[in-house]
Task: structure prediction
Amino acid sequence: MSKIDDLINKLCPDGVEYKTIQDLCNISRGRVMSKDYIKNNIGDFPVYSSQTENNGELGKIATYDFDGEYLTWTTDGANAGSVFYRNGKFSVTNVCGLLEVINRKITTNFLYYVLSVEAPKYVNSGMGNPKLMSNVMSRIKVPVPPIEVQREIVNILDTFEEHIECLKKELILREESYESIMHQLLKKENFKNFDALENYCSFEKGKTPIQKNKPGNYPLVATTEHLQTSENYQFDCEAVCLPLISARGHGVASITRIYYQSGKFALGNILCAIIPKDDQIKAEFLRNYLFYHKDTLLVPLMRGGANVALTIDSLKKVQIPIPSVDEQQNIIEKLRPFQDIISKENGIPAEIEKRQTQYEYYKNKLLSFKEVEVNE
Result:
């Protein structure tokens, strides 16, 4: 960061001027374009809407309304205040605001980073529908440091964004590889002998109330991505930990996660521990098999109205393969490296989280300037 520090000390040591968006940009909105319109006018030019998935792209049409460097922002809805940098030929719908920089004192990509921090602060969440309308956007004040400072800040933040994007792409590739090898190793056709789960495992419901749990020295398996902790433990063994309540609720049967846990641990009271009775079934192999087949093997067993759930009695009848212990261990060892890579505890997702935190810290730090009065 020494270069940016040197530039700030040289070019704006006492602070920078601030200007409103209406002093810096032309502000406009997109036009109404239905999904049917996009479907009937398919082409090469993107249409951006209020969504944030897929970079906000709703579809592509044969014409375009804008050509050049702009910013768009989501004016209302759950994603109100989300800001995007656009460069090229495109169109936007009526739920997108459009900013065209007309003041040469600021660059579009620098303004993008500033507004990605500032715009969400001005979202009005009243009446249950968050909004950031043009009249509010126009009054937002932003720092306008010297162009050299802006360019260096953009270079730093671009590097962060590119690194995070590379990690996300790497994660997608690794997850696809994991899915592929799970299919190769765990498809039912690979196994000959099947038997009921109850003949090889015991079942015990968790006893720890997740909301009232007191953190401590022992892992607590709940339904979250990351392990929590508990002051007490319920088990000291290897087990498959399976949520009994649907991950989605509202009458929809769904299982998102199944856990393998060993040693001393506590278990949330909406989960069940499936514990092998002897060495014929390895808990880690069982977890992998149940996880891979959960949508066809377990989800159909879930019952209920608003609260969709599994029963232990239904789990007992689930048919599982009984390969040799050596074959089970071979499968475990082949899957484990992929699981480590995509682990949210210490794999690529954890690295993305760390880099994202670092990025947000430096973005806020780099875009904070003391305001000074400037005589025009």
Summary: Residues 192-322 form a domain with the Adenine-n6-DNA-methyltransferase TaqI; Chain A, domain 2 fold (CATH 3.90.220.20). The chain has three domains: 17-144, 147-191+323-366, 192-322. Residues 83 and 116 are 6 Å apart (CA to CA). Residues 147-186 form the longest helix (40 residues).
